[in-house]
Structures are given as structure tokens and as C-alpha cells.
Design goal:
alpha/beta; Endonuclease, Chain A; 2 domains; 11 helices
Length: 337
């Protein structure tokens, strides 16, 4: 009996000890799927393959309104199209960035030409470091672009544009336009639109974190520690991450070239290829061929946190197939960095 009692006492002590031990269960490394939706129906432009004339005709043929917000405007055909819309009775307004990086006197020249054409024109809201947004609101459609209004954008660059007709999203674009025009506050609510400096970091991060198999990226600038790390983290969890960029100099708005962050990406086994023609000005992420981001936002701290920028999340499968086709075409001609 004494031996049995001692055995029971030992067992009881073991249970008490185990009960007092805190068991730490590792957190899952699986990324939380993005709660973002993505516009299910859009019309996509792919440049330089598509003709800019379709955009010019749409501007000139406006019946109700044309609101343009543009970082760089040097293509005079755009001003002619705006003038034609104005002559046809549309409400035409233009905002252009007053001090684009490296723009020299082009901003003042564009501003003066718009004024001379009779277009109601303002410089963009100085609250932001730059207004890098490239957009139009034409009648009941919003047009969101990676491209500036320059001839090279449509003839020599890789660029994308999206025509979006969802009434609520277009109304939000109008609200943002009016707020920037009047220098007032704007608070977005759309789950499809991506605004800097309000929600772009969170939403583009969400696209990166949503990827489970593949992530394809076009970037002109790679200069943001957080997003570069997220791309590396995606690779670590088994995602095939590929990025296309053009060789660049250190002469850019963030004061340093892409080399440092490209080195970090390659050290993290992200695949990087250089493409020189077309020049990669596009800004695009596609996760698992199901969710895409297109817009003016670079992988840049300035772009995400200090600029006015606009992009869009899309789930339209026809559009995503076209994005993937362009990417694979450029990837095949690119050279490993």
C-alpha cells in the first residue's frame, strides 16, 4: 500500500507540473488573405501595343465632363482633345503638378497652354509632396493610368490604363478631385480604389500578402524597405516572385537608385530581370492570377506615404490575362540582373 501511495503521489505531482507549464504554439506563417475585393469588370489598355488615339477620342467626345489630374503633361494632342470637349459644352477642368521631379519648365509651359486653350486649370494640391496621380473622369467613367500624358508614355513605355464605370467608385474619384481642387480633406471608402497617402501601403501590402503561388510585379522604382521585405517574405513562404524593372540611374525623387533594394530582393531569391525596351514605367502587382493592382504608386516611401496617388484593385479575369500576357512577353526578352 505504501508503494502504491508513493506512485500515486508522483503521478499527481507530474500532472500538477504539466498544468503549470505554459505551452507556446507557434503562430502560423500563412499570410492572412486580403479582405480587398477588386473591380470585377474593367476595360484594360496595354501600351505601347494599344493606340493612344482611343483615349484622345474619348476625351474629345465627352458630353458632360472631363476632369484631368496629371503629373506630367507634354503631349499637346491631349490639350487639343480637352479643348474640343470644352467646345462641345462639357465641364472641363485640369490639374497638373507644379513641380514634377526633373520636369524643368515643362509644368509651367503645360499650365500656360491649358490656360491659353481656355481650360479651367489649377496646379495640384501643395499638401502633397507630389501629385503623381494620372487620371481622368470622363462623363460616367473613371480612367486610372500608370502613364503620364507624354508621347513617349504611349510609344516607348510599358504602361497600363483602366476604364472603370462602377458608379460608386467614379463618385469617389469625383469627390477626391473636388477635394484636391478646393484643398479640402478627402476620406475614401471604396474597397477597389487605392489612394496615397491614405490607404495605398495597406492595400498593396494586402495584394502581396494574398499571394500563395505566384506574384508578378512591374516596377519603375524599388525604394521602400517594408514592401521589399514583404516580397522577400512571399518568396520565403513558397511564392514564385518575379519582378521586371528597367535599369535606372540614382537621379530620382527618393534620392537614390534602385540598386540597394534590388540587391535585397535578389539576396532573398526574388527573380529580377531588366528590360530596356519598352521602358518599364508601369506599376503592377498580380497575385495568383486572381487579384491585380494597377496605378501610379511606385514601390517608394515617397509614393506611398507622401504623394497623392491613385490605383485600382481588379479581379477581372480578361484584364488579368492581358496583364499576364504582357508580363510573360517582357520577361522572355528580359535579362537576369
Amino acid at each position: 500500500m505504501r508503494a502504491w501511495a508513493r506512485a500515486m503521489a508522483i503521478i499527481t505531482s507530474i500532472f500538477v507540473l504539466v498544468a503549470c507549464v505554459e505551452i507556446n504554439i507557434p503562430e502560423s506563417v500563412t499570410p492572412t488573405p486580403s479582405p480587398l475585393g477588386g473591380a470585377p469588370s474593367v476595360q484594360l489598355f496595354v501600351y505601347p501595343e494599344d493606340d493612344e488615339q482611343a483615349l484622345l477620342d474619348r476625351i474629345a467626345g465627352a458630353k458632360q465632363r472631363v476632369f484631368m489630374k496629371m503629373y506630367l503633361l507634354t503631349d499637346l494632342r491631349v490639350i487639343d482633345a480637352l479643348k474640343e470637349a470644352d467646345a462641345n459644352g462639357a465641364d472641363v477642368r485640369a490639374m497638373v503638378e507644379e513641380n514634377p521631379f526633373g520636369g524643368g519648365s515643362s509644368a509651367r509651359q503645360s499650365y500656360d497652354k491649358l490656360k491659353k486653350a481656355g481650360i479651367n486649370t489649377k496646379y495640384t494640391n501643395p499638401t502633397f509632396r507630389f501629385t503623381h496621380e494620372k487620371s481622368f473622369i470622363i462623363d460616367d467613367a473613371g480612367i486610372i493610368l500608370t502613364a503620364n500624358m507624354s508621347k513617349s508614355a504611349f510609344s516607348r513605355n510599358r504602361e497600363f490604363g483602366v476604364i472603370h464605370t462602377d458608379a460608386a467608385d467614379v463618385a469617389e474619384m469625383v469627390a477626391a478631385y473636388n477635394a484636391d481642387w478646393n484643398r479640402t480633406e478627402f476620406n475614401p471608402t471604396s474597397s477597389n480604389l487605392v489612394w496615397s497617402p491614405v490607404n495605398s501601403r495597406e492595400r498593396i501590402n494586402g495584394v502581396i500578402n494574398a499571394a500563395t503561388k505566384t506574384l508578378t510585379v512591374y516596377a519603375e522604382v524599388t525604394q521602400d524597405d517594408e514592401q521589399v521585405q514583404l516580397l522577400v517574405d512571399a518568396k520565403k513562404r513558397g511564392v514564385d516572385v518575379r519582378l521586371i524593372v528597367s535599369p535606372s540611374s540614382s537621379d530620382d525623387e527618393d534620392g537614390g537608385g534602385n540598386a540597394t533594394d534590388l540587391d535585397k530582393l535578389q539576396k532573398g531569391r526574388v527573380k529580377v530581370r531588366y528590360v530596356t525596351s519598352p521602358y518599364i514605367h508601369a506599376k503592377m502587382f498580380v497575385a495568383d492570377a486572381t487579384l491585380a493592382f494597377i496605378g501610379s504608386e511606385n514601390i517608394s516611401t515617397t509614393s506611398l506615404d507622401f504623394n497623392r496617388e491613385l490605383g485600382i484593385l481588379i479581379s477581372d479575369q480578361n484584364a488579368i490575362r492581358r496583364l499576364n500576357t504582357a508580363f510573360e512577353k517582357d520577361w522572355d526578352k528580359g535579362k537576369n540582373r
